Q: What sequence folds into this?
């Protein structure tokens, strides 16, 4: 197989950058919805790395993994947003710093 | 010189990073969601560049479509689009510490990737696949054992087994009549099978013309991806025993697609039990099989119905669309259902592997190797759905008894409603109950 024009390393590097941005969003933003979006960004960057490796190894199994990750992400978003809506109803806020009811 | 693909990658990658950063720093949650959609679209485009068209479609519809619509819906529903920066940080050291840690992680990961600690060696060749095609006239259904393990059961004459996947190596294949024990006196054919990586092999069982018994012809089916793209491979196997009892009765195969008196002879002399390989362009072909040298009979029969075929002369004409980059196995056998010997041509696709990353390939994997995970994921989605309904259900709080105003200056202190009712019942009695 001839060498692809865009090396797998570049894709993995881009995926690492996106993952870092996503983790920064999770740690720095205090809005629950934005934290969720950042998690989506991280999942997506992992998917990108998986697809890049699938091309590298010529194995389609990674595509299936990406498919499953997408499904899990959809389920996670549905449940997470439901939680946020419920919290918003009681607290009138989506700021995670306000949620310290369990704090000792 | 930067190639088109690399330039595209740099542009799309930069746009996706920019969109991610804008998502992080924008103060409006709706803007964040829109920037995230741009990021998802960029990633979808990268999937397309990585030979994953199915995932491209799923990414656009599920991620950029369904999931982001859900996000936007919740943001709008709660009216929480204004995300004001907090005035008093609870942990003032958090932001610089996070920035530092993530940058260090990114630096280490980037260094590892750039220094090629990544294992990007050539992939292992895929496991070879093989199958058996029964074209030995006069032999009933057979079973095939590989190293004592039954891999093919009840293979009828003129049929092909499914492809089996085995690790590369050398094996011994034994063919016995169907449901016979694997004993030395039962074995019809014992042959060694050599499977190399990435191979697609068909073993065509034919009757050995010279010695009697059954022989196996090995037919290779893999098309080299570096070959010309519009090439298809055609393999013709002669498997009709001679009618007149001679040892060899060679046939000729000609391409008579183009009308004219000068058909293109593909193979001059193909003995019984032999195979011939051709590389041909894709297209619809009309191929004729006929006894060697008897080309006029083949041409005269072109376009006629089956009934007019000269069966004794063994002329067989068949039309077939051969697609590019495929291998076609064309086994010339006879039909044993009737009393007459009727030539019958079997077409088998040699390698029907779907394209890498196509929806067809995904479906094939999903419903074979990944059926159980697929069902588990479906169950998970169902659970999530039920969970969402339970979570967002408005709990019916037990109604507190409503405070009722009572009449202070009426005996018995009835409520206003009770007093009005009693007034309606007997208007004369204004003192109520």
A:
């Amino acid at each position: 197989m001839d060498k692809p024009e865009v090396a797998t390393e570049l894709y993995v590097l881009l995926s690492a950058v996106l993952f870092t941005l996503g983790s920064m969003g999770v740690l720095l933003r205090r809005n629950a919805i934005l934290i969720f979006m950042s998690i989506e960004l991280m999942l997506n960057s992992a998917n990108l790395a998986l697809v890049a490796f699938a091309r590298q190894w010529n194995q389609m199994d990674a595509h299936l993994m990406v498919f499953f990750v997408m499904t899990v992400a959809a389920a996670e978003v549905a449940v997470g947003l439901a939680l946020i809506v419920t919290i918003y109803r009681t607290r009138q806020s989506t700021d995670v710093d306000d949620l310290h009811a369990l704090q000792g | 010189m930067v190639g088109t693909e690399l330039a595209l990658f740099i542009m799309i990658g930069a746009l996706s990073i920019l969109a991610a950063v804008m998502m992080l720093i924008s103060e409006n949650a709706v803007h964040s969601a829109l920037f995230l959609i741009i990021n998802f679209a960029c990633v979808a485009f990268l999937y397309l560049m990585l030979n994953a068209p199915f995932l491209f479609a799923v990414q656009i519809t599920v991620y950029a479509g369904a999931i982001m619509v859900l996000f936007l819906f919740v943001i709008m529903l709660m009216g929480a689009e204004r995300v004001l920066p907090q005035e008093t940080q609870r942990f003032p050291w958090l932001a610089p510490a996070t920035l530092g840690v993530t940058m260090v992680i990114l630096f280490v990961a980037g260094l590892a990737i750039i220094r090629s600690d990544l294992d990007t060696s050539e992939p292992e060749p895929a496991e070879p696949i093989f199958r058996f095609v029964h074209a030995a006239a006069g032999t009933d259904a057979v079973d095939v054992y590989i190293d004592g393990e039954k891999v093919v059961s009840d293979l009828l004459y003129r049929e092909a087994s499914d492809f089996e996947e085995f690790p590369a190596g050398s094996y011994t294949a034994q063919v016995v009549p169907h449901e016979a024990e694997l004993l030395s006196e039962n074995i019809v054919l014992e042959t060694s099978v050599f499977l190399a990586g990435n191979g697609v092999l068909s073993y065509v069982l034919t009757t050995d013309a010279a010695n009697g018994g059954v022989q196996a012809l090995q037919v290779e089916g893999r098309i080299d991806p570096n070959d010309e793209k519009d090439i298809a491979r055609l393999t013709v196997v002669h498997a009709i025993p001679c009618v007149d009892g001679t040892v060899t009765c060679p046939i000729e195969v000609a391409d008579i697609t183009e009308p004219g008196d000068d058909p293109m002879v593909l193979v001059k002399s193909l003995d019984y039990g032999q195979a011939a390989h051709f590389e041909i362009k894709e297209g619809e072909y009309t191929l004729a099989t006929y006894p060697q040298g008897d080309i006029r009979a083949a041409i005269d029969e072109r376009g006629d119905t089956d009934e007019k075929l000269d069966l004794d002369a063994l002329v067989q004409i068949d039309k077939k669309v051969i697609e590019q980059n495929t291998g076609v196995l064309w086994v010339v056998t006879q039909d044993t259902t009737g009393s007459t010997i009727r030539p019958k041509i079997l077409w088998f696709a040699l390698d029907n592997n779907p394209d890498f990353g196509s929806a067809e390939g995904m479906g094939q994997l999903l419903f074979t190797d990944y059926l159980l995970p697929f069902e588990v994921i479906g169950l998970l989605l169902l659970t999530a759905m039920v969970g969402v309904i339970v979570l967002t259900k408005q709990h019916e709080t037990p109604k507190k008894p409503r405070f009722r105003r009572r009449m202070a200056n009426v005996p018995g202190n009835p409520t206003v409603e009770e007093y009005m009712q009693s007034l309606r019942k007997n208007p004369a009695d204004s003192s109520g109950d």
